[in-house]
Q: What sequence folds into this?
């Protein structure tokens, strides 16, 4: 089973099953509710953004369910997508959001922007570190 990016998930953790919840940032997954109903644990997970969800083990000895926050590039892509669409009124939003060609072009451009940002940010931050090391000497 492939890991999916979702905004909510409901599932049951039966007897002998395991669940791992990995929270590594403030983005994505923000609430997990566990409820025991007659020996079966009901789980409800919600997120402000997408989060990773897997409901099958990847291999022997691995957990049956996985919940975790998405990679940083997914968070940035979601942010840029929301930022773009939030600039329109309802009429414009309906008109533009139905255009599949426009949505594909925007998605591709957002992905490029995130890749460019990652590279540029790493270079700039490393240059600050290099300057800091030189001034310490």
A:
């Amino acid at each position: 089973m492939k890991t999916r990016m979702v905004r909510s998930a409901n599932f049951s953790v039966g007897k002998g099953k395991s669940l791992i919840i990995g929270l590594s940032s403030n983005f994505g997954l923000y609430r997990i509710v566990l409820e025991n109903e007659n020996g079966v644990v009901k789980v409800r997970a919600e997120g402000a953004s997408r989060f990773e969800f897997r409901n099958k083990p990847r291999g022997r000895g691995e957990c049956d369910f996985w919940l975790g926050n998405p990679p940083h590039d997914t968070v940035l892509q979601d942010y840029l997508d929301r930022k773009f669409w939030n600039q329109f009124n309802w009429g414009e939003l309906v008109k533009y959001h139905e255009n599949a060609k426009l949505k594909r072009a925007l998605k591709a451009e957002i992905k490029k922007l995130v890749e460019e940002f990652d590279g540029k940010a790493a270079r700039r931050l490393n240059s600050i570190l290099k300057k800091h090391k030189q001034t310490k000497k």
User: Anything to note?
Assistant: The chain has a mean pLDDT of 82. The chain has two domains: 1-70, 71-137.
